[in-house]
């Protein structure tokens, strides 16, 4: 039996107190927490340390993309915060990915999982054409997944639309962290490559990242519960064949 995919709650709150209010209502371990640029820039490392000390698994989603030496230092700093996962941008290239990997491997203590963003889920074919990225989103995800596997990363961030191809390319043990997840009745917002939670799981996502459908819900804690139940039911149905 495969482990059910995890729910990672994207805490993109402007107000750290609002993020705390939601997290305080959740049982530790029911889901994972994602801190991205909005909340990190507001609240800094202290909030992350507060949650990691309380036992939460935190995905620090800062998508490091810089020269190799700088990204290596940023990954070391993330590891010192005790996060569960940290990510870089695969567009940073092979040397940057290798430097991130080496920085985490050089640690004596535990290191976070290291994943690479491939093609943002807000990007579609028109975006790739505009920025001059060759081929379709699926082509670009495959190329960037190749860079991530060559550098020994633990997985990639991709949309559900590419999750099955990434699994076939990189193997079942390579994580497919999937944002752009929308319950059928939820607004797509700025996301372009979108699947429902069940669709993303059936496509092979290992971790579902969900933000606004939770943070903008009338009852965010209930929205988390509903999503966790849907994830578990979908995974169980798939295991039953
Ligand atoms: O390709 C990517 C990479 C990261 N994200 C992040 O995931 C969440 C999604 O939030 P929603 O509100 O559910 O759209 C957000 O924090 C993004 O920064 C992504 O969407 N796509």
UniProtKB/TrEMBL annotation:
One of its GO terms (molecular function) is orotidine-5'-phosphate decarboxylase activity. It catalyses: orotidine 5'-phosphate + H(+) = UMP + CO2. Substrate binds at residues 12, 34, 61-70, 121, 182, 191, 211-212. The gene is pyrF. Gene3D superfamilies: Aldolase class I (3.20.20.70). It holds the Pfam family OMPdecase. This is Orotidine 5'-phosphate decarboxylase. Belongs to the OMP decarboxylase family. Type 1 subfamily. HAMAP family: OMPdecase_type1_B. Catalyzes the decarboxylation of orotidine 5'-monophosphate (OMP) to uridine 5'-monophosphate (UMP). GO terms for cellular component: cytosol. Pathway: Pyrimidine metabolism; UMP biosynthesis via de novo pathway; UMP from orotate: step 2/2. GO terms for biological process: 'de novo' pyrimidine nucleobase biosynthetic process; 'de novo' UMP biosynthetic process. Its EC number is 4.1.1.23. The active site is at 61 (for ompdecase activity), 63 (for ompdecase activity), 63 (proton donor), 66 (for ompdecase activity). Residues 6-227 form the Orotidine 5'-phosphate decarboxylase domain. Keywords: Decarboxylase, Lyase, Pyrimidine biosynthesis. Homodimer. CDD domains: OMP_decarboxylase_like (cd04725).
